[in-house]
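Priority: medium. Attachment 1 of 2:
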């Protein structure tokens, strides 16, 4: 075969055509060749030189480096020692241990395969024959095409990294008006320097090529930055020469199902994944690794699918199963295990920034574990990923949403909430919406939309306006910028568990039965009440008049009927009159206390009402001025009234609970004013929701419209002030007029009860009225009075049974967990483009929409969260399926097919196996988003089942295992390390779900960051031994054992996982109480009177690693036991101290020295690399 290189550039690009001609070198062939005579220069060596060397050491004098040419035979005399590759400078540079010295340089973007290097060695050892063909090519006339440049793989990354920051999508900051992120911005565009940016087919006259290849530093681009590598410049030149073909960014093109490539070694492939992987390996001259041994394989897949090690019984069953589908049966069992849902949930909690506290300085507690349990259940139930998406982003907007669908929306309430004093709530309303967009776009789309908050995205075609259009989807939640400090912030719902739902359903059935029973005797009730009324109608003696009023949960009652004393919590209390003598007047009900703006009643310190309490405040008042305190427990401060109180302010009734009057409390007032000099019944109710929406104010039994004044609860109410009637802590607000019948209830009175309480007529007076003349409130008062106090025993028993069950139900419902959820508000909150991203600098209004670079929202649908969620999982969306399967791949192999898991934009990495990624994505969609099927597909592939053993050459060639010629050996995630120790020790409690727990951690770790009452609560009993998934997660002080092993803090979403190796990790495994106790439990579990030391330590090792220890390891473990046994037999006190770690009781029947020695061996095993690593 003769070849002509009419252009030096063509010679440097010969490899492509030669590969097409079938001249590639198979690694297996190269490694198995026994005779160096099989290597031929033109066939085997020339393609290597052409592809890897001649661009810098070829015929192009202008580009030649070090004045070295490899296109002529005379280089053999300087670079090669024929017959001795090891002594040849060429071979030494190709295999140099120092990557800086190794050739070709890493900056070239090209590296030789092991097979290619082996061919060069064989060629040199065989005498380095030149072959005589190269010199004859000049007259031969055969032209070989240059290497074809792939824009998305080779050019876009260069432009994105080096050019887009100044010449990209961000119009506001674009330099010289030059745009290099679109072909239209380059082709035909002229610049201030007079040249065309790109002339397709003519790199020499294209300004882009001129500027990046310029030698003059001030003229060369990128300006004031490191120059492009020679290989990058050459790639740009080739791209322009080849016509400057442009492609849209690969991730923005919907994936099409590629055909799995045909491969030579068909027997190796177990499913189409393997075809794609093997084709790439053959292209690189590599072979896959053999399958891992069975013990390794079952441990690997068990840890990957359940986060738990296999039991010895499961290992032995697999080893003994000779069936062809033995491994597939293991996978099926693991996918059906409830442990699977827990394992899958761990990564999703990191992505969702799930925590048990709010973050920021105060970092108070919240309750979101019902959402966490929803995630576990969704994975275990194999909920399709499209449904999983829609329910989490917009479950509340589905038709007739279920409780579980509303719980699911907690995904976008997991973000941090600021409860600090002095913040501007408007600022944090924006921050919360921004967090939702940033998290949602990263998790489902793999995009960094947050980079467009202040200006157009510098690298991706996302305009700032489009960022705020995305904000509009998530900016319509009825929330407040300032969160609640120690409980959930609205909107939230009560979310009973399945067992609690069964409990409440049973109680509801009892309640329904009691109501039906009472309804059954309605005729009897009416007749009995009529007889009772008749008995009252003859009463004429005033002293014999009958009256009654609501007493259920009455906490405080001061009748003020000629006496200022009263009852509190059912007990009589004395009260004192301050600043004057008692004065009484005729009241609405008997006498009433009169107040002159100076005197007031000190009624003691009960009750303690707080933001989370339900209560009702009631009184008859006769105001003579527009301002005054009806009653309160509040003090005066430099910031106003602090505490709770029922006020008359400028004629309007006000209910206020405040810790700081300006920014910490909840208060509302009536829209209308009360008339003066008139008796009126006033009632304020509060439902404990910490919001003004939970307040109502009634006047004479009628509910009035309220105006919210303060909605910023953070701290707790002070409780030091006494209950004052007619005053607060300030002398300026004392009441003028008369007050009668002060009542405080420990519940929210219903509208019916409010009307009854405002009915001044006595029971006797009402009974004397013709039934047709009674108001509904009078009739209700009469009926309730009869049923509560005067009905015959059978009727009263039936009535009280209903009331008792209603009270039980309310108390039970209030005891159930709540969860923060998404909810739409009406009217919609306006959204604006924020100038420079500043919350207080709004620009023009924007409306919900998706970026123009992506497919549009479906027509005919309202543009809201629900349509957005459905758009994400539309088969035409190019991102969601790719991003999701890429994260699954990362879960198993440590790195995704796209390494930048959280960034599929221009700054992200091009996929290592783009066709495989698209095949997986389309397969995922076509399977109806079947999550378990995707896991099965990956873990049953031959690619996954490879051994992780690696040669030094392969490790050097592919240190990150991006080519997938082996399994990836990975340190276990933090939670899995702890779960594994508890599991093999027998301590693990495998209960799913429930409130977060407090395992062992160093004492006092929270003391410097929490307020009194918020200290760390160490769990007891079984809760100490729950999976790490259930550990209480405090954002400002995450579990130290988890963080030591590189867990995310969950302050923001986390999609990439780092793995470090530090001395702290070993110290943690040796000294943390969790591992000390697990070591003892493991020792107790394996010690047996009829087993030898060798057998016991081998069992421990096998429980931790699933493998038998080799003789060397077994010897080390036995020696360690012997040494520790000598020590602890001579120091039984130290042994006792060691085995006493943790709360679980030790086995008192075991010899303490022997137990301590075995415990130390177990600790050693738990610390082994083989134990905390997945092979």
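Attachment 2 of 2:
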């Amino acid at each position: 075969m003769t070849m002509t290189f009419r252009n030096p550039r063509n010679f440097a690009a010969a490899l492509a055509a030669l590969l097409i001609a079938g001249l590639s070198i198979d690694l297996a062939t190269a490694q198995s060749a026994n005779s160096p005579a099989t290597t031929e220069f033109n066939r085997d060596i020339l393609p290597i030189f052409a592809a890897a060397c001649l661009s810098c050491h070829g015929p192009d004098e202008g580009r030649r480096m070090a004045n070295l040419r490899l296109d002529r035979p005379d280089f053999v005399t300087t670079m090669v020692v024929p017959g001795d590759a090891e002594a040849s400078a060429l071979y030494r540079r190709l295999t140099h241990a120092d990557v800086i010295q190794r050739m070709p340089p890493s900056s070239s973007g090209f590296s030789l395969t092991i097979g290619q290097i082996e061919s060069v060695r064989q060629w040199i050892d065989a005498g380095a024959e030149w072959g005589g063909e190269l010199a004859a090519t000049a007259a031969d006339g055969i032209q070989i095409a240059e290497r074809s440049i792939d824009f998305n793989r080779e050019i876009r990354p260069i432009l994105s990294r080096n050019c887009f920051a100044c010449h990209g999508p961000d119009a506001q900051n674009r330099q010289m008006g030059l745009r290099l992120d679109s072909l239209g911005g380059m082709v035909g565009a002229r610049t201030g320097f007079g040249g065309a940016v790109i002339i397709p087919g003519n790199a020499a006259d294209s300004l882009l090529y001129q500027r990046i290849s310029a030698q003059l530093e001030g003229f060369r681009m990128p300006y004031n930055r490191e120059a492009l590598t020679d290989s990058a410049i050459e790639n740009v030149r080739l791209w322009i020469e080849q016509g400057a073909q442009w492609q849209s960014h690969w991730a923005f093109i919907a994936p099409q199902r590629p055909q799995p490539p045909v491969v030579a070694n068909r027997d190796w492939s177990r499913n189409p994944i393997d075809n794609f992987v093997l084709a790439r390996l053959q292209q690189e001259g590599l072979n896959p690794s053999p399958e891992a041994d069975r013990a390794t394989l079952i441990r690997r897949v068990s840890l990957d699918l359940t986060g738990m090690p296999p039991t010895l019984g499961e290992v032995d069953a697999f080893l003994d199963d000779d069936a062809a589908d033995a491994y597939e049966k293991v996978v099926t069992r693991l996918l059906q295990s409830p442990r699977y849902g827990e394992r899958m949930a761990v990564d999703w909690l990191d992505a969702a920034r799930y925590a048990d506290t709010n973050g920021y300085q105060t970092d108070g507690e919240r309750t979101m574990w019902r959402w966490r349990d929803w995630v576990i259940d969704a994975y275990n139930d194999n909920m399709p990923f499209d449904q999983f998406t829609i329910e989490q982003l917009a479950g509340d907007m589905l038709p007739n949403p279920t409780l579980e669908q509303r719980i699911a929306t907690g995904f976008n309430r997991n973000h941090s909430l600021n409860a600090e004093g002095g913040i501007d709530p408007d600022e944090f309303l924006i921050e919360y919406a921004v967090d939702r967009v940033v998290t949602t776009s990263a998790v489902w789309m793999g995009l960094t939309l947050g980079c467009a908050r202040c200006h157009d995205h510098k690298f991706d075609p996302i305009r700032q306006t489009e960022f705020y259009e995305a904000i509009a989807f998530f900016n319509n939640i009825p929330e407040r910028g300032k969160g609640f400090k120690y409980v959930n912030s609205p909107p939230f719902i009560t979310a009973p568990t399945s067992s609690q739902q069964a409990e409440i359903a049973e109680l509801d059935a009892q309640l329904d039965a009691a109501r039906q029973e009472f309804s059954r005797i309605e005729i009897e009730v009416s007749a009995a009440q009529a007889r009772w009324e008749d008995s009252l109608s003859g009463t004429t003696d005033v002293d014999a008049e009958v009256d009654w009023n609501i007493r259920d949960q009455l906490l405080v009652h001061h009748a003020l009927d000629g006496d200022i004393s009263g009852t509190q919590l059912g007990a009589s209390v004395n009260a004192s009159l301050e600043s004057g003598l008692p004065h009484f007047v005729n009241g609405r009900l008997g006498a009433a206390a009169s107040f002159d703006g100076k005197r007031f009643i000190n009624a003691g310190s009960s009750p303690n009402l707080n933001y989370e309490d339900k209560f009702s405040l009631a009184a008859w008042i006769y105001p003579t001025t527009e301002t005054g305190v009806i009653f309160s427990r509040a003090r005066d401060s430099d910031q106003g009234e602090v505490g709770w109180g029922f006020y008359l302010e400028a004629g309007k009734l006000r209910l206020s609970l405040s810790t700081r009057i300006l920014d910490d409390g909840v208060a509302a007032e009536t829209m209308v004013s009360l008339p003066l000099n008139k008796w009126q019944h006033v009632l304020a109710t509060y439902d404990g929701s910490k919001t003004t929406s939970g307040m109502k104010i009634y006047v004479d039994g009628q509910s009035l419209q309220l105006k919210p004044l303060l909605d910023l609860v953070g701290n707790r109410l002070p409780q030091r002030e006494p209950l004052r009637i007619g005053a607060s802590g300030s002398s300026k607000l004392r009441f003028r007029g008369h007050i009668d019948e002060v009542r405080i209830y420990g519940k929210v009175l219903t509208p019916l009860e409010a009307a009854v309480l405002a009915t001044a007529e006595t029971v006797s007076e009402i009974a004397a009225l013709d039934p047709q003349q009674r108001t509904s409130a009078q009739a209700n008062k009469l009926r309730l009075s009869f049923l509560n106090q005067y009905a015959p025993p059978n009727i009263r028993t039936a009535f009280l049974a209903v009331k008792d069950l209603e009270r039980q139900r309310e108390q039970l419902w209030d005891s159930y967990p709540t969860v923060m959820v998404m909810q739409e508000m009406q009217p919609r909150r306006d959204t604006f483009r924020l100038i420079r991203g500043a919350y207080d600098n709004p620009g023009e209004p924007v409306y919900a929409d998706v970026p123009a670079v992506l497919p549009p929202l479906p027509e005919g649908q309202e543009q809201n969260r629900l349509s957005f969620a459905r758009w994400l999982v539309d088969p035409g969306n190019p991102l969601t399926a790719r991003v999701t399967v890429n994260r699954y791949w990362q879960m198993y192999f440590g790195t995704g097919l796209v390494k930048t898991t959280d960034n599929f934009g221009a700054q992200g990495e091009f996929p290592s196996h783009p066709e495989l990624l698209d095949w997986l994505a389309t397969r995922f969609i076509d399977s109806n988003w079947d999550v378990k099927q995707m896991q099965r597909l990956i873990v049953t592939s031959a690619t996954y089942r490879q051994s992780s053993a690696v040669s030094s050459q392969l490790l050097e060639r592919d240190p990150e295992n991006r080519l997938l010629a082996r399994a990836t050996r990975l340190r276990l995630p933090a939670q899995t390390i702890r779960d594994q120790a508890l599991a093999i020790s027998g301590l693990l409690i495998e209960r799913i779900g429930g409130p977060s727990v407090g395992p062992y951690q160093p004492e006092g770790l929270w003391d410097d960051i929490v307020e009194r009452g918020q200290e760390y609560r160490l769990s007891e009993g079984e809760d100490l031994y729950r999976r790490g998934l259930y550990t209480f997660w405090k954002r400002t002080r995450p579990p130290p054992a988890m963080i030591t092993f590189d867990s995310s803090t969950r302050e923001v979403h986390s999609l990439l996982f780092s793995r470090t190796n530090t001395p702290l990790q070993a110290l943690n495994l040796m000294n943390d109480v969790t591992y000390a106790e697990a070591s003892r439990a493991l020792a107790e579990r394996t010690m047996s009177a009829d087993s030898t030391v060798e057998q016991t330590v081998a069992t421990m090792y096998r429980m931790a690693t699933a493998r038998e220890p080799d003789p060397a390891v077994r010897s080390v473990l036995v020696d360690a036991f012997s040494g520790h046994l000598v020590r602890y037999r001579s120091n039984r006190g130290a042994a006792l101290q060691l085995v006493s770690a943790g709360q679980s009781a030790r086995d008192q029947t075991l010899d303490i020295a022997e137990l301590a020695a075995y415990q130390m061996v177990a600790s050693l095993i738990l610390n082994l690399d083989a134990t905390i690593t997945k092979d």
